[in-house]
Amino acid sequence: MRIHPKKIFLLGVLALFAFTGCTTQKSQVPTAVKPATEKVAPQPKDILKGKIAGKSNKAKNIQIIVGKGDKAKTIMLKFNDSTKGLEFAKKGEAAIIKFKMVGNDKVATVIKPKLAKLPEGVLEIKTNELMGMYESSADMVVIDARPASRYAQGHLPGAISIPVPKLKKEQETVLPANREQLLVFYCGGPT
Amino acid sequence: MTTKNAGLAKKLGYKNVRAYLEGEPAWSKAGNPTYSMKSYVEKGNIVLIDLRTSEKAVNGRVKRAVSVPYDDLEDRMDDIPRNAPVILYSDDAEEAIDALDDLRSEGFKHVSLVKGNYSGWVHSGGEIVTGAIASTEISWVRILGPGEITVADFKKATDGGDPNVFVIDSRTPDEVAQLGIFKNTVNISLDEIPNRMHEFPKDKMIYVHCSTGARAEMAFQELKKNGFKVKFLFLTISDPICDCEILKP
Predict the structure, then answer these.
(1) How many angstroms separate the Cα of B219 from the Cα of each of A70, B150, B208, B225?
(2) How many beta carbons lie within 10 A of that of residue B132, not counting itself?
(3) What is the pLDDT of residue A70?
(4) Closest by alpha carbon to B19, among A119, A180, A168?
(5) B17 vs A121: CB contact, 8 Å cut-off?
(6) How far apart are CA A120 and CA B114, in angstroms?
(7) How far is Cα A128 from Cα A113, in angstroms, rounded to an integer?
(8) CA-CA distance, B79 to B240, in Å (whole number)?
(9) Does residue A110 contact residue A77 with C-beta atoms inside 8 Å?
(10) B47-50, strands of its sheet edge to edge
(11) Under an 8 A CB cutoff, do B179 and A8 touch?
(12) What is the CATH code of the structural domain delimited by A127-186?
């Protein structure tokens, strides 16, 4: 006998969020195993900045990845009814979380989105506007900035693949010659 | 990545640079199609589906494609693992988009299309197979990420066939009360795990599951950090491939 698929499917959808991201995928971030006896130094600060790795409304838990590369650490926090800005704790999105210690638990008090800073002169484009531009066959070059493997799996219509390291290395040779050409860059969501 | 590339382009003198910060997840969520590269259709660990009629598939289909005519798709959905990347093609662009919508709204996480559908594939010089279809069975096996267990190993443990494994169901007691629990499994919600670690065996392997794998992964990270031998099940447990026995309350 199996769990009734329909019922649990709804629960699944709530907990589920596309696990694509601009930074390394979760499956590629092995964390070091620490011996249980090792004491973790107390954190003097009460603010964590990083990417939300997960949120469970049922368990009232948030996980945030702090630090980059090999130093990346996943930290678990709790939240409650008085936690402000819970809507910004979305898996895969960058956030700043203020917390207080309650016993051994970190309890989030305020969550704010960590907004991507756009380079000067670059305007954001939203999904609706981009869809409209596709519909009107606007003259644009859509560029996927994610690693080539993510592009291969699935990319926007007509997009070309230029991962960040490639653009750094090959500069304008991989971009259209015309400097007036409209370029739209995207990746797997905010970092 | 978007901002880095946009900044680089700006520095190189490009005047019209826009940043689509919401990115691919928002694009797909709004019901728009994404397309897979030819090399990925050829070699990726995917489920490739031919939505056209069986007759057409017999006359020529993309290599590795499984024939699931669109009319049968709904009935065949449970044969496709929810975690599998699914790539579709048809000879009708609208039908391909409809199927993409159907799968995404059923909870499939990665669904894309073959560029230009079947004719696009043929034009791009892609490999074609012709002749009778021996099987329409869908066989896909997830390539496990770090810390993941196979469904088979998980099933063995919950069936009681692996005494060296301690299985934790990290869902809430409410969910368990409503939906039941697998055999040989202890319900300790994600929330309680940090406070109850002293109860867990250090000499056994711990398997954690939840409803989709999200909380199980959090629990895995937490337990690993604390020196436990632990793995987790990254699977939506309502997925029909998870055919483990459930004890109802």
Answers:
(1) 20, 17, 7, 10
(2) 7
(3) 65
(4) A119
(5) yes
(6) 37
(7) 21
(8) 7
(9) no
(10) B35-36, B110-114, B85-89, B47-50, B66-67
(11) yes
(12) 3.40.250.10
DSSP-assigned states of every residue in A49-62: EEEEEEEETTTTEE
- Reported confidence tier of residue A36, pLDDT bands at 50, 70, 90: very low
> Within an 8 Å CB–CB cutoff, is residue A181 touching chain B?
yes
Any A CB within 8 A of B170 CB: yes
DSSP character string of A127-189:
HHHHHHHHHTT-SEEEEE-S-HHHHHH-B-TT-EE--HHHHHHHGGGGS-S-TTSEEEEE-SS
Predicted pLDDT at B241: 74
Q: List the domains of chain B with CATH numbers.
A: 18-129 (3.40.250.10), 151-247 (3.40.250.10)
| Any A CB within 8 A of B198 CB | no
Q: Are A9 and B238 in contact (CB under 8 A)?
A: yes
**Structural domain boundaries in chain A:** 44-115, 127-186
Q: Answer positive or negative: Cα dihedral of B25, B28, B30, B32.
A: positive
Q: Cβ separation of B214 and A7 shorter than 8 Å?
A: no
pLDDT tens-place string over residues B64-78: 999 999 999 999 998
Report the alpha-carbon distance of residue B119 to residue B91 in Å, rounded.
7
B4 touching chain A per CB within 8 A:
yes
Question: Which CATH superfamily hosts domain A44-115?
Answer: Copper binding periplasmic protein CusF (2.40.50.320)
